[in-house]
Amino acid sequence: MDELVRAIEATLFASAAPLTVDEIGEHVGEGDVPAALSELAGHYLARGIQLVERGGHWHFQTAPDLAHLLRRTREEPRRLSRAATETLAIIAYHEPVSRAEIEAIRGVQISKGTLDVLMDAGWVRPAGRREGPGRPLLYATTQEFLTHFGLGSRRDLPGIDDLKAAGLLDPLDEAVFQLQLESEDEAD
């Protein structure tokens, strides 16, 4: 391996957070960073750890086929409530979205604690304020959300056909989901 590849490997290994190509370039200096990342990812392809890109950020992760070895030592996170799961899905598919819009889509009010749980998990963040009456706070997903769920970007979220194929939509959910998609198309 050449010096650039080695420098990138050391930079990513020592980094506490995933890095973009530009951030890696700031650490290692001149060179074809994308080509070096591709070479390094190929080198780690059949290893116990892999170099992956998620949402434009690069990091090392345990190879998926070996993840079960680490589950025994990892603390099990508590499960999200149904309200938190629904709220997270609404934010992911509709971001940036206000609390009132989340409540309108869900059809019920959400407690402040629901958003706090999602923000504490690092999956949701405030994303500014909407111009308009009351200037409501907007919410969006984070890079950590993409990384946790193994998504390269929000475009990788499953669509209605994927959800149907997985059996995750019952007929009522499917009708509501379809109405939401149609109302978004009309708004655009």
UniProtKB/TrEMBL annotation:
Domain of life, source organism: Bacteria
Coiled coil regions, renumbered to chain: none
UniProt keyword list: Cell cycle, Cell division, Chromosome partition, Cytoplasm
Any matching Pfam family: SMC_ScpB
Annotated protein name in UniProt: SMC-Scp complex subunit ScpB
Organism this protein belongs to: Sphingomonas limnosediminicola
